[in-house]
Amino acid sequence: MTNPFFNSDEARMRAFFRIISYIFLFALLTGVPTLIPFTALEYIARGVLIFGLFYTFFRFVDRRPWDYAGLQIRSTWIKECFSGILIAATVMGLIFLAQWQTGTLEITGFAWERSFERHWLIPFSIFLIQMISVGFYEELMARGYLIPNIAEGFSFGNISPQKATLIAIFISSSIFGILHAGNPNASTTAVVNIILAGVMLAVPYVLTGRLALPIGLHFSWNFFQGGIFGFRVSGLEIRSSIIQIQQSGPDWWTGGAFGPEAGVIGIIGILLILGISLLYLKWKGVKLELAEPFRKSFRELESTPVQKS
């Protein structure tokens, strides 16, 4: 009789139970650092805990070689991460300029002009640390863990690993969007747009097998959106931004109180980032096809030497 919980052929839990266990522990561990009274340390601790969870599950629950984790920090990885930062910063800058020039936002001041209990660089630096941590641990969960496991869970019958990966991108992106549904001022449009952003972040990952571009893009989008240009970040107001703004114009265009992610201008930005990322990868000689971990089954990968990159 088939064991619904354990796959004896692969000597590990079945994909569904691995995913449920990981999400439960992810939610649990993200709450633990809230006991730390210092915000920066809280987010650093959260990143460390989630990395520990990811490593433990990836190596010992999933039983995968670490070289398939997407976190092999070599020169190519570093270049892709910084390129992601530059791409998202540029696009967010274009969103800011488009709104400024069309009169849908007004610059009302700058961080150093506001009254803070501490020097303005302190909350700004704390926000930088927060966004580095969030970009890192959310990518570990939404892309680095969910996509390979969902893809394996759907790789049965006539569903090839390639088709299963497409399903995994949609499901993981949907989970990513739904997790933002509880944010302040969230709307159906905002959730749908964040699902689209999830797809945008997933595509470079499944093409390269590396989390470098997604982490760089995710961090930079959030940081420049809220820390530099003064937009709300997924509904959250950032009071320490370099540029202070007042928005106007229709919410369907600007995203209103949720930020650009809930407006048409956010969709344009997401699609622009995806397009530029694909052009960048093609320019760097990356074949626009699924990376090895998403073309082969778990058993095939076990018997294949890991390719260094």
Please describe what this structure looks like.
The structure is a single chain. This protein is mainly alpha-helical and 309 residues long. The protein has one domain. Helix content is 60%, strand content 5%. Helix 4 (121-154) crosses helix 6 (188-208) and helix 6 (188-208) runs parallel beside helix 9. The termini are far apart. The relative contact order is 0.15.
Question: Could you say which overall geometry the principal axes of the C-alpha atoms support?
Answer: globular
* H and E order: EEHHHEHHHHEHHH
Structural class: mainly alpha
Question: Strand arrangement, largest sheet?
Answer: 1-2
Number of helices: 10
Domains (count): 1
Distance between the termini: 42 Å
Offer a concise description of the structure.
The protein is mainly alpha-helical and 309 residues long. 60% of the residues lie in helices and 5% in strands.
SSE layout and pairings?
Blueprint: E1 6-7, E2 12-13, H1 15-31, H2 39-61, H3 75-101, E3 105-110, H4 121-154, H5 161-178, H6 188-208, H7 212-228, E4 243-247, H8 251-254, H9 264-283, H10 298-302
Antiparallel strand pairs: 1-2, 3-4
Helix pairs in contact: 1-2, 1-4, 2-4, 3-7, 3-9, 4-5, 4-6, 4-7, 5-6, 6-7, 6-9
